[in-house]
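Q: Okay, next protein. This is Sugar ABC transporter permease from Paenibacillus paeoniae. I've checked the sequence twice, so it should be correct. Can you predict the 3D structure?
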Amino acid sequence: MKSRSSKLNYDRYGYFFIAPFFIVFLVFGLYSMVYTFNLSFTDLKGWNRDYNYVGFKNFVDLFHNPLFMKSFYNTFIIWIMNFVPQITLAIILAAMFTNPRLKLRGQGIFKVLFYLPNIITAASVSVLFYVLFNHPTGPINQLLVNFGILEEPYNFFRDKLASRSIVAFIQFWMWYGSNMLILIAAMLGISPSLYESAMVDGASNTKIFFKITLPLIKPILLYNLITSLIGGTQMFDIPFLLLGGAPDYSTETIAMFIYKQAFTGANNYYIASAASVVLFLVVILLSAIIFKFFHMEPERKRKGVK
């Protein structure tokens, strides 16, 4: 009885370890979200403490704001342009590194090289790519002209599609290594006996991947998709530092729109708050749809078995 009582007392110390997280979250997380939600229904502008509640007027104005709709479109287009090749390459590399038949040498070096872009600061990457694609003396322009692909240097940063593509490529380059390592860990968690049985039965690498590996790493793919969606909708540093939303707002994201409304002289806190709430709700809705989609197939299979 005494040992059980001491064990219970000892378990109470766990609350002290998790308390700092909850305190920080309540002060800087939950309170900020509730306060932002409240401001989205007001006409607060600047540091003025006096404001009035205006109902859903801010949201109506927001959806009639062409710049907000454009930033919304840009955000998801750039995210799709970088996430699809990002997760595809990450899966391929992870499958290669974990395939017992390939037995690749020097895996550690390649893993470090692939992950390295993820630890470079956004400011450094922005400067690097600005120099690479600079007009007219950038290395990319010089190579294309010297090889006869272009007759004269091209200003990539004045082309909407090229600008979006450059931002998407940078996001892809910076994050595919991180997804690769997560997927490698997921694939290494699969029981080797499954692969051994498949190889004994003469299954090809392709069949093993689609019948064993891919179904068993679906929870991790779901995690990668959700975290990438959340990060993609918060995309700010690369497009802001590289182009500032140019040309013609074609690289302006929702996060940039919110920042400019709140902190660059406009002081439209009510618009920024409403845009933040819309972004929050859209992410929740899309996450719920993704969760439902990933769980539909297993449910159908279980019903089919019954």
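A: Here is a summary of the prediction. The chain has one domain: 65-305. The radius of gyration is 25 Å.
Q: Noted. On to the next one.
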